[in-house]
Amino acid sequence: MPFHPCFLSVVFVLRNQANEAEEILTKATHSLSSVVADYELIVVDNSSTDNSVGVLKQITSVAGLANIQVYTLTKEVDNDTAAWVGLENALGDFVAVIDPMHDDVTFIPEMLKQAVSGADVVFATNTNKKNQSLLYRGAHGVFNTLFNSFNGVNLGRDAPTFRILSKRVINFILQHPQPHISYRHLPATGGFSKVRLTYSHRSDAPEPKKLWDSIDRGMQLLVSTTRAPMRLVTTLSMFGAVANLVYSIYVVAVAIFKTDVAPGWISFSLQQSGMFFLLSLVLLVLGEYILHMARLSNEGPAYHVAQEFTSARMTRLDKLNIEVVDASDEQPEHIDTRG
């Protein structure tokens, strides 16, 4: 397996996986320790209700695994937001994001080879997908069609969650007002060099994804990544206003040129068309105002980290030249010249 002289960060999002956490991180350590010059494993605990935090503290103890950073969240958030917690705190030259219950951590070296060769973004798609309900697959297909028509990206095909990003891609995402949302699709739409790989790995996910949670996340992505849905509303409002204005002109023309018109039809039609004309104008102005406010919105934090702790052993620190000085006499007590 080729060796790469780089620093790799790997982000894991875990929730209620106290029983699997040590196995996941041990497997990742064995897969990466001989592949890169240095690495860190970033674990984002998505507000677990089991003993996950206690287990992670044991794993990061002196007798545990090295190079692990842990961030525990105060409340559960969607997986993309939780992944972004790890991404924005990563120190590596490249950052991998992996779903440990669905993706194969041993495939990261193959992805890293493409990243080191010059790809800013490397996507990996697991062809062995977990079965979902027919209703979920239908809703997923509708969402991907809409998102693709608005943004030109099919998230399921063109931007899977298993990915490696270079540091400059992360810096690019950081410039956006909502990076925890933009992170999902921006790497596929920005002008970066991209590589897409496929592999097959059995999914260990305990249960299918929840339809309602996916719909909620999909709607959030649609309205936050593009103005197209609201622009469609304002366009329809403008069309309604114009159509009612044209209809009013038609009613006036009928009143002028026809004599056998039903009593009350002209006044009733003008009243109706005038009312809907005003209503359409109100919706148009309101829609434009919402679009403007959306551009200026400044929402509160999307997440809050409750605890942060690291492994007692960090191999990259062992490679630094460290001089410890006694404050009393300012004479060096120990010099570590390794590295």
Helices and strands, with pairings:
Elements: E1 4-14, H1 21-32, E2 36-45, H2 52-59, E3 68-73, H3 79-89, E4 94-98, H4 108-116, E5 121-126, H5 134-151, H6 155-158, E6 163-166, H7 167-174, H8 179-182, H9 186-189, E7 194-199, H10 211-225, H11 228-257, H12 265-296, E8 305-310, H13 315-318, E9 322-325, E10 332-336
Explain how this protein is built.
By secondary structure, the chain is an alpha/beta fold. It is built from 13 helices and ten strands. An eight-stranded mixed β-sheet has the order 7-5-6-4-1-2-3-8. Strands 9-10 form a two-stranded antiparallel sheet. The longest helix has 32 residues. It starts with a strand and ends with a strand.
Order of helices and strands: EHEHEHEHEHHEHHHEHHHEHEE
Helix content: 40-55%
Number of helices: 13
Q: Proportion of β residues?
A: 15-25%
Query: Any idea what the shape is?
Result: elongated
Task: Work out the radius of gyration.
Answer: 28 Å
What are the segments in which pLDDT stays under 50 over at least 5 consecutive residues?
Answer: 330-339
Q: Which strand order do you get reading across the main beta sheet? A: 7-5-6-4-1-2-3-8
Task: Kindly name the structural category.
Answer: alpha/beta
Give the oligomeric state of the chains in this entry, treating copies of one chain as homo and distinct chains as hetero.
single chain
Mean pLDDT: 82
Please report the distance between the alpha carbons of the first and last residues: 23 Å
Please give the largest β-sheet.
8 strands, mixed
Count the strands? 10
